[in-house]
Amino acid sequence: MATAQLSVTIEFSLELTTDPVGATLDITVPRAPSDDSRQALLDNVEKTMVNSRNNLVYQSVQQAHEQLRAYASGEDYDVGPLIESFAGVEAERDRTSIHAEWSWSHEALQFWEFGTSDHTVDGDPILVFEFDAQKYPYLDEMFPDGTAFLPATDVSGLPESRAVRDSLNWLRRRVGQ
């Protein structure tokens, strides 16, 4: 008995975006035995990638958030605003493909993702921090109004967190399984 072999082609593209930091995902089924089989495959891919509870894109985003938390915990940084700036996932589907995009809107995420070198921030003047004089009386002597303004400040560079890039690599590995 002869068996027929059917061929389905799937094209997968996952790219990092940098303005804003995020990703675009394109999955295309350009060749399938029939349109019905293509639609069934796209239904399954769409559900797995973006439309089910705990889908792979959601898991990838959670990977990025966990890595940001781990990165920040050693330095006592507050990554809450970065994580809260996640703008969600937008997905579109047409007859042959699925396109999804997701990103974080916080402008500082790019500095966390890619790191910075040591640098000087100049201002006219710059607000460095606000503080509670009750908790920090020694600062109250230098800055009696509860704010520290300086003409410039030297900032130690941030090492790169690679949170988003590593989460995309995680997603690539999962899709490749």
Q: What form results from the Cα inertia axes?
A: elongated
Number of domains: 2
Mean pLDDT across the residues is 87
Distance between the termini: 32 Å
Radius of gyration: 23 Å
Spatial order of the strands forming the largest sheet:
1-2-4-3
Instruction: Note the beta-strand portion.
Output: 25-35%
Description:
α2 (56-73) packs antiparallel against α6 (163-176). It is built from six helices and six strands; from the N terminus they run ββαααββαβαβα. The strands form two sheets. It has a four-stranded antiparallel beta sheet with strand order 1-2-4-3. The chain has a two-stranded antiparallel sheet with strand order 5-6. A hairpin with a 2-residue loop joins β1 (9-18) and β2 (21-31). With 177 residues, the chain is an alpha+beta fold. The chain has two domains: 9-116 and 159-176; 119-155, no CATH class.
